[in-house]
Write a sequence for this structure.
C-alpha cells in the first residue's frame, strides 16, 4: 500500500492502465491493488471493496489508444504517461501491440536515460507483454554531454569539444548497458544549430571502438528528412534479426538481488543499502508471493547514482533504498532510491499557464 501522495504519472493506476492487455485484464489488475491491511496484516484488495467494476468503467474509453498525426502527417499513438524516473516510463502495451499489427516498423520511446527508461522497458514492459525488441536508438546531444563533462549550465552554450569527449563516458556506459540486454544499438546525435563540427566529432571519437554506428540527425531543423539515414540504418538492423533480447534478471531471483543487479550492472554501484525496516519489507514481499515480480527503480534522472550532481559515469558508489512499495495490480515492486520524490513540484511558471482557447475557438500554447 502506498500511503504517500503521487503525481498521476507515478500512480499505480497509470501503470495498470499502460500494462493492461484488455478491459478484462484492466479490471482484474485493478482488483489486485492492495489498498490497506487488516489488524492481522492481511492485505485488503480493491476487489474486496467491490471497486474494480466502477474503476474500470471510468477508464473504459481511455483504454482506447489515441491515434494522432505528426507535423508531417504520419500516424502515431499517444497513450499513457508514466514518468521513467519515478514510474515505469513506457507507453501502453495496447498501443504498442496495435502499432505492431499496422506497421512494418514501430518506434517507441522509453523516457529519460537508458538507465531508467530503457531498463524498465526491457525488464518490465517487454517481460510482462512478451515483446522482443529488434534494435535500440540512444539519442545523444552535445549539450547533455558537456554537462556530463563538467560544464555548468551558464557555460553550456560555449564550444567545448574536450568536455563533450569527457562526457562520452556517460554515453559509453549507456551503450554498454543497452547491449547487455542483447539488443543491437545505434547512437543518434540530435544536432542543433549551435553545435560545432568539433563537438560532433568529439562524440564519434568518444565512443570509438564500442561497435556502434553514430549517425548525425538534423530533425530539429529539417524534420524527418534529417533522420533518413538513421531510419534506414535502424530498419536494416531490424531486418537482420541479429538481436537476442534477454532481460537483465530472472523472475526467480530474490527481490533484493534484482535491485542489486540493476544497481551494480547498470549504475556502476558497488552495493545497495537499506535500514532494517526496508530490509524487512523486502523479506515480507518475498515471503508473501511477490518475489517473482520485476522491480521498478525510482531514482534521479540526472545521474547513474542517486546524487543528481554526480555526473559522467560514476562507479564505486552505494545506492540507498529509502522505501519499497508494492504495485500488485501493475505487477511490479517500486523501489524508492535516495531523495527522489514521487510528487515532484511544478516549475515556477507551469507550461499549462499558457494554454487557452483563442477567440476563434482554437487551442493556443501547446508548443
Amino acid at each position: 500500500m502506498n500511503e504517500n501522495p503521487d503525481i498521476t504519472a507515478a500512480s499505480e493506476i497509470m501503470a495498470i492502465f499502460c500494462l493492461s492487455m484488455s478491459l478484462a485484464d484492466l479490471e482484474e489488475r485493478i482488483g489486485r491493488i492492495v489498498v490497506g491491511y487488516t489488524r492481522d496484516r492481511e492485505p485488503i484488495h480493491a476487489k474486496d471493496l467491490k471497486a474494480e467494476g466502477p474503476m474500470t468503467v471510468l477508464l473504459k474509453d481511455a483504454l482506447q489508444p489515441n491515434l494522432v498525426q505528426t507535423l508531417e502527417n504520419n500516424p502515431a499513438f499517444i497513450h499513457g504517461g508514466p514518468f521513467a524516473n519515478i514510474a515505469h516510463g513506457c507507453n501502453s502495451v495496447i498501443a504498442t501491440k496495435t502499432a505492431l499489427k499496422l506497421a512494418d516498423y514501430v518506434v517507441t520511446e522509453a523516457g529519460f536515460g537508458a538507465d531508467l527508461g530503457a531498463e524498465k522497458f526491457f525488464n518490465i514492459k517487454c517481460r510482462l507483454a512478451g515483446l522482443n525488441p529488434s534494435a535500440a536508438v540512444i539519442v545523444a546531444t552535445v549539450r547533455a554531454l558537456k554537462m556530463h563533462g563538467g560544464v555548468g549550465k551558464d557555460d553550456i552554450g560555449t564550444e567545448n569539444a574536450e568536455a563533450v569527449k569527457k562526457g562520452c563516458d556517460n554515453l559509453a556506459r549507456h551503450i554498454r548497458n543497452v547491449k547487455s540486454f542483447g539488443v543491437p544499438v545505434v547512437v543518434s546525435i540530435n544536432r542543433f544549430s549551435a553545435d560545432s563540427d568539433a563537438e560532433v566529432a568529439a562524440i564519434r571519437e568518444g565512443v570509438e571502438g564500442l561497435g556502434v554506428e553514430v549517425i548525425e540527425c538534423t530533425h530539429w531543423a529539417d524534420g524527418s528528412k534529417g533522420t533518413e539515414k538513421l531510419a534506414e540504418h535502424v530498419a536494416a538492423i531490424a531486418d537482420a534479426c541479429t538481436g537476442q533480447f534477454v532481460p537483465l534478471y530472472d523472475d526467480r531471483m530474490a527481490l533484493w538481488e534484482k535491485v542489486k543487479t540493476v544497481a551494480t550492472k547498470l549504475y556502476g554501484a558497488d552495493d545497495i543499502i537499506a535500514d532494517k525496516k526496508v530490509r524487512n519489507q523486502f523479506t515480507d514481499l518475498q515471503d508473501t508471493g511477490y518475489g517473482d515480480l520485476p522491480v521498478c527503480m525510482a531514482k534521479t534522472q540526472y545521474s547513474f547514482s542517486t546524487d543528481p550532481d554526480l555526473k559522467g559515469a560514476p562507479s564505486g558508489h552505494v545506492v540507498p533504498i529509502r522505501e519499497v512499495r508494492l504495485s500488485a495490480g501493475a505487477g511490479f515492486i517500486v523501489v524508492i532510491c535516495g531523495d527522489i520524490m514521487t510528487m515532484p513540484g511544478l516549475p515556477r511558471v507551469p507550461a499549462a499557464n499558457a494554454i487557452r482557447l483563442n477567440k476563434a475557438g482554437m487551442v493556443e500554447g501547446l508548443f
